[in-house]
Write a structure and sequence with these properties.
Elements (H helix, E strand, L loop, with lengths): L1 H12 L2 E7 L4 E4 L8 E3 L7 E7 L4 H16 L5 E7 L4 H11 L5 E4 L4 H5 L7 E5 L4 E7 L5 H13 L1
Parallel strand pairs: 4-5, 5-6
Antiparallel strand pairs: 1-8, 2-3, 2-6, 4-7, 7-8
Length: 162
């Protein structure tokens, strides 16, 4: 019964209000243009709203979602919001090529080629977006992507910024 209600909610509104739970901390390598191995820890984002998205270059909906997230990241620049895109490709070159093709520049892009962080977040589909409050608690989960989801994401961000 619960699964049916959950499926109906996802179909109707595109997101699932999350059962509040602490978002797992992690450290991953940042995908950068200078090929440096900069390690980034999620603990550094405490005190900010985190929009955490999992994607891959072969994921068709991800190709549509990334430009929308990049635009939102530019819109929220200078505010207490960080947009993080965790890539699950085994080949870094594939991730870099897609970001270049789409002109993505405002997202903090991290690499999770073995899916270890995706497993911590119990990822079931891609893309999946998690909205995490300033205390590090997951408040909203958005499996999949449909054009127009940005409106709902902005409403959820506004709620978490209050």
């Amino acid at each position: 019964m619960r699964a049916t209600i959950l499926a109906l909610c996802v179909a109707a509104c595109g997101h699932v209000p999350a059962s509040p739970r602490s978002a797992p901390d992690f450290t991953l390598t940042r995908l950068s243009t200078d090929l440096a191995d900069e390690r980034v820890s999620s603990a550094g984002w405490r005190g900010r709203v985190v929009v955490l998205d999992f994607w891959a270059s072969w994921c068709v909906p991800c190709r549509k979602e990334l430009p929308a997230l990049d635009a939102l990241a530019r819109h929220y620049a200078g505010r207490d919001v960080v947009f993080v895109a965790v890539n699950l490709d085994h080949e870094t070159a594939n991730a870099r090529a897609l970001l270049d093709e789409l002109g993505i520049s405002a997202l903090v892009t991290l690499l999770d080629p073995n899916g270890e962080v995706a497993d911590l977040y119990r990822l079931a589909t891609m893309p999946t977006l998690f909205l995490i409050d300033k205390s590090g608690v997951t408040r909203f989960v958005r499996p999949g992507y449909r054009p127009g989801d940005e409106v709902g994401i902005q409403l959820e961000i506004a709620e978490l910024l209050r």
